[in-house]
Fold this protein.
Amino acid sequence: MRYVATVDGEERIDGRTDPHAHFVCNKCGRIYDVEDTKPTAAETALMGDGFSVESRSVTYYGVCGKCCK
Ligand SMILES: [Zn+2]
Ligand SMILES: [Zn+2]
């Protein structure tokens, strides 16, 4: 599966190709890789309907651990 991070509307092709999500810190702007290996409920439902999911882009936004301190 191809992995694309969409940050502020910009697509960034990621060096990592294994399934993972991203976390973007609203304070420092850092992008973190987040383990997210399992198919989501939506993917499972799509695959159950015979759809083939080729890529997924999941980005979480918030404040990172460093900025929370
Ligand atoms: Zn931060
Ligand atoms: Zn990544």
